[in-house]
Amino acid sequence: MSQLFKVPDRVKTGSQSPIQTPEQYREHYMRASFNPSDYWLEVTRRKVRWMTEPTLGLVGSYHNIAEEPIAWFSDGTLNLTETCLDQHLEKNGDKTAILWEGDEPDEIRSLTYSQLYKEVCKAASALRELGLQKGERVIIYMGMVPEAAIAMLACARLGAIHSVVFGGFSAEALRDRVRDCGAKYVITQDEGRRGGKAVPLKAVVDQALEDERLVKNVVVFKRTGTPINFNKDRDIWWHDMVEGGAESLDPVECAAEDPLFILYTSGSTGKPKGLVHTTGGYLTYTSYTHEVVFDLRDDDVYCCAADVGWITGHSYIVYGPLANGATTMMFESTPLYPDAGRYWDMVSRHKVTIFYTAPTALRALAAQDEDFVKKYDRSTLRVLGTVGEPINPDAWNWYYQVVGEGRCNIVDTWWQTETGGICISPIAPVTETAPGSATLPLPGIVPLLLDNDGHIIRGPGEGKLCLAHSWPGQARTVWEDHERYVATYFSTYPGYYFTGDGCRRDGNGYNWITGRVDDVLNVSGHRMGTAEFESALVNVDEIAEAAVVGFPHPIKGQGVYVYAVLQPGYEASEEVEKNMRMACREAIGAHAGLDQIHFVPGLPKTRSGKVMRRILRKIVEGDGDKLGDISTLANPEVVDVIRQDFKALA
Ligand code: WTA
Q: Do the beta carbons of residue 169 and residue 186 sit within 8 Å?
């Protein structure tokens, strides 16, 4: 059993959370497990401003999810922005809601709750003028500017469904998403700024919409003022649009189960899926987990350094924190710009108390001189969070000792786009931690480990992580494809939600996520499907076949390793490699880099023609000598060639 780190005193003292002690955690956990409906009804009444209070908790079950999607609080009605904005105006109107730091450290903006309320109402009333109706879809393709959050909230004010697309995605990926959700409106900006560089957002939108007639308007926020192509029939400046918008606007009444947003995420097969999160349950769960896990206090300055293009940005920059009336930071830049001290410089200038980032950033920073950390005052920090991938104990220890100087508790939060909010994590004032473990499930979450035959593993062991019961934050379906939702998450182990992750449970009952057990890569916390890379690669003229696997990478967590078979008559060259890299950038985006390209004479296949990824994965993990019996393959001889080449490359 590993050594546990006690909760530092200053993290325990002064807690305002409903769960402050291990006894309270156990009590809440039991209540949520035995009577989820009552538990969550009680939570939602406390945390959410309803128009019609719900009397129903959970309706539906995983056993008949194909026929009937899960529903929470389904007889309630609300508008989510009343919880995030209106309810704070009286007591906290002058409190900072969003504190923004731009790419350059001296670019700062802050919006109080009253200002944010006005901006959201102005944007919502202007969007309504353009014709935006309840239930219609809006794509938001922006960088990290407050207007991205304002746009999300403005959609929610009108009951419109937003789909934020991360600003690194390519025109092709953006076009796929616009089409899949049938968006009539796109909100973007002239360009983004990141790490001293420009990100050409509007130009990508133009390219994505070249043959797209369904999009009525593109709204462009002016971030840098760079000249852009402007299509007068379609494009509108954000500042022109909101000028004269109403500073107060009645919220549209929504059903609890009306969709709030669609967020596309990668799986093992096919194109990314548009996961649908609905209103009442998602809001309840994100505000609850944000309060409980981080032990949110009235005077906290909370900083999550994620991007709103991912679920972390939705749940823990925008919705959870604003529902809780917190001061939430938005950060436009990168941890390394202008140098490796940026995070800690920001912490000291804004007196940040809770800081939440990804292990990949910590590994990159831990590789630099400690002075980058030490020269800044970090004494305000109390809770340090990580998310997105397993954190290796070295990075954990660095975060704990060097950044937090042993005064902060670390919350290693495990969750997914599908789960909407944090599921397995320490609770800051309560849980003793172990470096690399996400520790214990939150109330309402019932994790199970299953072996390959679908048997439940009891006590310590390792298996596939499933969750046994629904919780309010869970994604309800895949946009217009409920069958795919059921097939992806509920068919592997009928009756359970299958996460796609492997997990080990130790003698303390602590969970150690071991990573994906499917064909999903996690590169620097970015989730990508091997199938997406492969379909881009086989479109390259010179490439006949390709198989992509992840390999352990010291900074990125996982790197992208490509096995490629050339078309007859072609030879490996820098030119071919360049074409391959371009193809992935164009199909997916700038974050879809290839770390290693390995040309091979063939891919190992079963006699029925299935590529044996397990073998390819083992080789790059350095276990090429431990493949076991490969004689049943259709082409065992290529394995020897690949193994030899790999050794030569390494
Ligand atoms: C991984 C991000 C280990 C996991 C919120 C999951 C983690 C995938 C952790 C979801 C963690 C996330 N420890 N692995 N604390 N948090 N993951 O949808 O493999 O972008 O399935 O959501 O990230 O990635 P997604």
A: no
pLDDT tens column, 72-103 = 999 999 999 999 999 999 999 999 999 999 99
Cβ of 500 below 6 Å from ligand 1: yes
Condensed to tens digits (0 to 9), the pLDDT of residues 259-318 reads 999 999 998 888 899 999 999 999 999 999 999 999 999 999 999 999 999 999 999 999
Tokens of 643: 């193994």
Which ligand 1 atom is at minimum distance from the Cα of 390?
A: 3
Using a cut of 0.85, tell me whether the model's pTM lies above it: yes
Would you mind telling me the total number of residues written for the chain in this entry? 650
Helix (H) or strand (E) holding 512: strand 511-516
Would you say the CB of residue 396 lies under 6 angstroms from ligand 1? Answer: no
CB-based burial of residue 22 (10 Å sphere; 0-12 exposed, 13-18 middle, 19+ buried)? Answer: middle
Locate tokens 């049943």: which residue? 632
- CA dihedral sign, ordered 501, 440, 46, 315: negative
Q: How far is the CA of 417 from the centre of ligand 1 (A)?
A: 8
Q: Are 464 and 449 in contact (CB under 8 A)?
A: yes
Domains of the chain, by residue range, sit at 520-649
Is the CB of 387 inside a 6 Å radius of any atom of ligand 1? yes
Other beta carbons within 10 Å of 633: 17
Identify whether the C-beta of residue 356 lies closer than 8 Å to the C-beta of residue 316: yes
520-649 has which fold?
Answer: GMP Synthetase; Chain A, domain 3 (3.30.300)
Q: 332 CB under 6 A from ligand 1?
A: no
Mutate to test the pocket of ligand 1, among 411, 416, 465, 504 (most ligand atoms within 8 A of CB): 416
Look up tokens 């394995």; give the residue: 639
Closest residue CA from atom 5 of ligand 1: 416
Distance 274 CA to ligand 1 centre (A): 17
- Tell me the C-alpha distance between 288 and 295, whole Å: 10
Ligand 1 contact, 312 CB (< 6 A): yes
pLDDT over 80 at 649, yes or no: no
- 500 contacts 516 by C-beta, under 8 angstroms: yes
Q: Would you state the torsion angle of the CA atoms of residues 565, 571, 572, 576, taken in this order, to the nearest 10 degrees?
A: -90
User: Of all atoms in ligand 1, which is nearest to the CA of residue 438?
Assistant: 15
Question: Do 406 and 417 meet the contact criterion of CB atoms below 8 Å apart?
Answer: no
Ligand 1, atom 6: nearest CA belongs to which residue? 416
What is the radius of gyration, based on Cα positions, of the chain?
Answer: 24
- Gap from CA of 199 to ligand 1 centroid (Å): 26
Strands 543-553 and 557-566: antiparallel
Residues 207-237 pLDDT 10s: 999 999 899 999 999 999 999 999 999 999 9
Report DSSP state, residue 419. Answer: G
**Closest atom of ligand 1 relative to the 312 alpha carbon:** 5
Q: Are 225 and 179 in contact (CB under 8 A)?
A: no
